[in-house]
UniProtKB/TrEMBL annotation:
Superkingdom of this protein's organism: Bacteria
GO molecular-function terms, A-Z: oxidoreductase activity, acting on X-H and Y-H to form an X-Y bond, with a disulfide as acceptor
Protein name: D-proline reductase
InterPro entries listed in its UniProt record: Various_sel_PB (IPR010187)
Keywords: Oxidoreductase
Length: 157
């Protein structure tokens, strides 16, 4: 499977719209690892729009800024995807966009200290970047701080 030229694809799909102003981050905060991964509490985060019924599906066309908390004990076969992208909807192995089983294996093998519960999912393809940065991101970061994580593994979809 070839990489998706996302920006070019968006421009082709919406030729009569004003060009989208993509976010450009010139700097990012650097947080060095303070201990080995085998001793870390790791949070799993995916932008795949995954939810665990009876949770509500995401609204894929309305810049849904909510996130879902998925217990680390959840059966991956019970999870659902409500992502706008056909690439996400057609996923055959959910672990490719939400590697919950793989992280549980890493925890059992002692390769990570602990997979934090819950894991988090949100809707990718959010075009209201200011609201994403000022509303959802701080709320999610607050939850991660409450859980006292050492590191996060983000799967962008």
């Amino acid at each position: 499977m070839a990489p998706v030229p996302y920006i070019e694809q968006i421009r082709r799909l919406y030729p009569n719209e004003p060009p989208y102003r993509w976010t450009v981050n010139l700097t990012s905060p650097w947080a060095p690892m303070l201990k080995p991964v085998r001793d870390c509490r790791i949070a799993l985060i995916s932008s795949g729009g995954i939810y665990h019924p009876p949770q509500e599906p995401f609204n894929p066309v309305k810049n849904d800024l909510t996130f879902r908390e998925i217990p680390k004990t959840a059966n991956v076969a019970d999870l659902r995807i409500s992502h706008y992208s056909k690439n996400a909807r057609d996923v055959k192995d959910l672990n490719t966009i939400f590697p919950l089983d793989r992280f549980r294996e890493l925890e059992v093998q002692g390769r990570i200290g602990e997979l934090v519960s819950p894991a988090f999912t949100f809707m990718g393809r959010i075009f209201t970047r200011t609201r994403l940065q000022k509303e959802m991101a701080p709320h999610l970061i607050g939850r991660l701080r409450e859980l006292q994580i050492d590191a996060a593994f983000l799967v962008p979809v």
